């Protein structure tokens, strides 16, 4: 299959600062973090503690990073963590997290501490992009000393909870632009040939290959299957080039790859993947799938605690 080379850089040559600047110059702001996220958080201040845990400053554009915590936080209670918007283009992760807070955020009051970061990457959210300002993928950089400011800020926020978190769910999407834009850009950035892949239609989960929790993953899949369709494997029996752990569940080396769901070392952790480009779904259904996934994950973890 002949694929046109990505329109930034030279084939076979990794990007330098000039190429990153050229890539950035192609991007256009398409929505506003202040309107979509900060404004949505304002009314939640009546019921939750909403705080700024850091700030991004990219060429004079400033983005306050927001965390929502349950009121009456007690260190002796289980900790529940929800993250969204690690990749800015994955819309339902952001809006699903906000919807969960509005509809269900107080259901564990007095029984667990809830911490929600609805939009980890606001600069990328505005531009509907996977990478941050420096053409780095935050979801390969959640570690101490991270070169991605978004990742470093979240790692610092969650560091006091590491090893004490009962459940962490990280809300993502897989879209057609993964194949048309983001994977070609990755190949170009790294000076490698682009190898086309296949995107499966439907919702799926990613477990940590080094710390699998198959019963937990199954409970989340069973709940989400009531509101949207679950991805079927391809002809090789895989989703995203990975074999199935069980229907709708694959495994990545989440901890070794420094992915978001591994930050906290949670007993129960998962990454959702919604497919909003399916003709069988809608944006509202994708948001609902994220909400149901969060609720099912918390219900399972609390029952097992």
Give a brief rundown of this model:
This protein is of the alpha/beta class and 305 residues long. It is built from eight helices and ten strands. 45% of the residues are buried.
Give a verbal description of the structure.
- Strands 1-2-4-3-5-10-6-9-8-7 form a ten-stranded mixed sheet, with helices on both faces.
- The chain has one domain: Aminopeptidase (3-Layer(aba) Sandwich).
- It is globular, with a radius of gyration of 19 Å.
- The protein contains eight helices and ten strands.
- Helix 7 packs antiparallel against helix 8.
- It is of the alpha/beta class.
Secondary-structure map:
Elements (H helix, E strand, L loop, with lengths): L16 H9 L7 H9 L6 E11 L2 E10 L8 E6 L6 H14 L8 E5 L4 H6 L21 H10 L6 E9 L2 H14 L14 E5 L5 H11 L13 E2 L2 E5 L2 E4 L15 E7 L8 H22 L1
Parallel strand pairs: 3-4, 3-5, 5-10, 6-9
Antiparallel strand pairs: 1-2, 2-4, 6-10, 7-8, 8-9
Helix pairs in contact: 3-8, 7-8
Annotation field: number of helices? 8
Tally of DSSP β-strands: 10
Count of spatially separate domains = 1
CATH-level-2 architecture = 3-Layer(aba) Sandwich
Euclidean distance between termini CA atoms:
51 Å
* Largest sheet, strands/sense/barrel: 10 strands, mixed
The ordered H/E elements are HHEEEHEHHEHEHEEEEH
């Amino acid at each position: 299959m002949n694929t046109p080379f990505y329109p930034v850089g030279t084939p076979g040559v990794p990007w330098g600062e000039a190429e990153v600047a050229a890539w950035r110059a192609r991007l256009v702001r398409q929505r506003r973090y202040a309107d979509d996220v900060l404004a949505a958080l304002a009314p939640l201040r009546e019921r939750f503690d909403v705080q700024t845990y850091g700030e991004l400053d990219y060429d004079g554009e400033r983005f306050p990073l927001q965390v929502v915590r349950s009121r009456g936080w007690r260190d002796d209670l289980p900790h529940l963590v929800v993250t969204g918007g690690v990749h800015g283009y994955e819309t339902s992760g952001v809006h699903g997290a906000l919807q969960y807070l509005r509809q269900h955020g107080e259901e564990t009051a007095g029984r667990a501490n809830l911490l929600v970061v609805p939009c980890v990457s606001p600069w990328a959210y505005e531009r509907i992009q996977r990478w941050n300002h420096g053409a780095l993928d935050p979801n390969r950089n959640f570690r101490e000393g991270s070169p991605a400011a978004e990742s470093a800020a979240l790692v610092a926020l969650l560091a006091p909870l590491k090893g004490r978190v009962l459940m962490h769910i990280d809300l993502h999407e897989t879209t057609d632009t993964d194949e048309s834009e983001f994977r070609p850009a990755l190949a170009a950035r790294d000076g490698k040939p682009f190898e086309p892949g296949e995107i499966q239609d439907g919702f799926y989960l990613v477990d940590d290959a080094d710390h699998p929790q198959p019963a937990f993953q199954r409970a989340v899949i069973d709940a989400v299957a009531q509101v949207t369709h679950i991805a079927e494997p391809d002809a090789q029996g895989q989703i995203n080039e990975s074999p199935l752990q069980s229907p709708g569940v694959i495994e990545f080396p989440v901890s070794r790859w420094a992915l978001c769901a591994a930050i906290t070392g949670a007993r129960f952790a998962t990454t959702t993947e919604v497919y909003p480009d399916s003709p069988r779904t809608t944006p509202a259904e994708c948001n609902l799938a994220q909400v149901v996934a969060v609720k099912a994950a918390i219900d399972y973890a609390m029952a097992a605690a």
